[in-house]
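Quick one from the shared queue. A colleague (R.T.) flagged SRPBCC domain-containing protein as missing a structural entry in our internal table.

Convert sequence to C-alpha cells.
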Amino acid sequence: MYEGLIITYTVTPFVGIKANWVTEISHIQEPRFFVDEQRLGPYRLWHHQHFFKEHPTGTEMTDLVHYALPFGVAGSLFAPIVKHRLAKIFSYRRKVLTDLFRVPLK
C-alpha cells in the first residue's frame, strides 16, 4: 500500500443497484494509521481512518469514518439504512479478523 494508491470497487448500495466506488489511500503513517478517501462513488463524502496500536495480544485496530450522503434532504431519509449497513459491514470485518487471527477484538 502506498499514498496515492487508487482502489476501484463495485458496490451494491441497495438491492438491484450497483455503483462504482473509487477510493484513494491519501495518507499513511506506518505503523500508526492510514486513510482512504472516496474519489468517485455513492457518498457525497467518505473519509475513513484506520488506526493501529500495539496491544498485549497483538494489534488493536480502530476505525473512524466520516461520511455524508448525496441528494440533500432526500438522501438524509436513507441515513438510518446506511448507518445500519455500515455497522453490519464493520461487524462482519471484525468477525473475519477475529476468526483469522483467533484473538477476540475489542
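The first helix runs from residue 72 to 76.
Residues 29 and 35 are 9 Å apart (CA to CA).
Added to the table.
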